[in-house]
Write a structure and sequence with these properties.
Number of domains: 2
Oligomer: single chain
Strand order of the largest sheet: 5-4-3-2-1-12
CATH topology of the largest domain: Nitrilase/N-carbamoyl-D-aminoacid amidohydrolase
Radius of gyration: 24 Å
Number of helices: 18
Helix content: 40-55%
CATH class of the largest domain: Alpha Beta
Order of helices and strands: HHHHHHHHHHEHHEHEEEHEEHEHEEEEHH
CATH superfamily of the largest domain: Carbon-nitrogen hydrolase
Largest sheet: 6 strands, mixed
CATH architecture of the largest domain: 4-Layer Sandwich
Structural class: alpha/beta
Amino acid sequence: MQPTSLTRLIAVGLTGLIHPLCFPHFDLGWLAWVVLVPLHWSLTGLPARKAFRYGWLAGTIAFAGTIPWVITAMNQFGQVPLIISTLLMLLLAIYLGIFVGSYAWGFARMHQGYPSWLWLGAPSLWVALEYLRTYALSGFPWTLLGYSQYQWLPVIQVSDLAGVYGVSFLVVMGNVTITSTLNWIRATQGECLPSFSWRPALAFVVILSTSLAYGQWQINQQAILDQSAKFLSIGLVQANISQDKKWNKTYIDETLKRYTTLSQQTGKNLDLLIWPEAATPFFFEKELAYQKIVLSVLKDSQSPLLFGSPTLRFEPDGNPYLLNSAYMLSPEPILTGRYAKRHLVPFGEYVPLKSMLFFLEKLVVGIGDFKPGQGPLTLPLSPSSDKKNVLLGVPICFEIIFPDLVRQMAKEGANFLVTLTNDAWFGDSSAPYQHFSMAVFRAVENHLAIARVANTGISGFIAPDGRILSETPIFTQQAVTGSIPLRTSTPTIYTQHGDAFSWGCVILTGFFLIACRRQTSPQR
């Protein structure tokens, strides 16, 4: 018996409601293995075009429940009216829902054309769409399905082969297997007993078991490497400067006093002291009086200092522009390097299609005329003899969610990663937790430890195998010290070859869809 329109809508709504629960800070990651099952069931007997509409609705509900923090960022801190903020969030959810709708469309086509190969075709399609979402319209790979498993260390180790997309593949394969098993159980209630479709179940059990075995082996290997690795002592300063005060000139002295006091609490002679993104609410290179205060911290701590600060530059015609920079200073003090953010936040650091969307520059408070940086992707840690060959990658804020950008830092020779961010924009929402969880995968993909420092939290340390070594509460002042291993081993498969697995899924998806088109008549 086919589902009714009402039961289909209920099933679609169930998938949409389960989706946010799979991610922080609900952290019910096990639900990801069944989140698509209701959607799959709702697609039973539907032509592809109708399947798209049901999938689009499921995706819209899912993302509306996963990214409500967009309203907080725009309304509370961008001073966009609540109704407009809500509408813009819904527009983003509708856009993201298109990817789920496209999955439902492809799922229906494959189910009609090659049902016995759905266990391979559907996960490939999902990964291809996640990969597209990573780059389309500047890219927004937030809460890819694989991120839901950040706490299950054995299963996420395949990321060093296939990136986070490999984990998404496993999760979707699990959903397809469970769906086919439930369909078989449901069919057994009829008069004739159908044969069990063993291929999806066997393939899933073998692939998942192999992945878990590989993951446990990798965890053991990382533990062995740690025994001979050099460790860095690092201090993190989480100053907890509220967003409404951050760029207020009357609070600059108070801000610097807080950073100075917390830096003193981390101790002296560290391998690295770190402040977050845009820690200095002034142009470090230009404002010498405030610059002296920062240099006094260096003199007191006798530790290299990495911190975020805006950089002012000028076009040949004299027009100014900004760079979102991370400065590295040695205790001498000497500027040993500066990294400028490559992947900027649309509508936060620049307005895309500015000639068409000119009104948004006045609508959203805080949009700067930033430009992407250029040059090397890594910074030297220190010119001292024992650290002169140590390089670090510094993905700033939004950049940590882009696997290939961080991979390029690792490929360029980074021995560890430091991510600087200001998550105050998110308010008291799930976003800081979601943002932190995604950094786990960058560590695993490249076998590089991560130090993360955020203005309002979460700050902490992540081991090369994805273990969260420490994390701070949000909206607290914290001075945190810890140690992380330097990696000098052979780069991972993912570091060397990037998204080869994802491209393989794109090719497989194309093959299945072309084959289905030839085998079935066009869907009405």
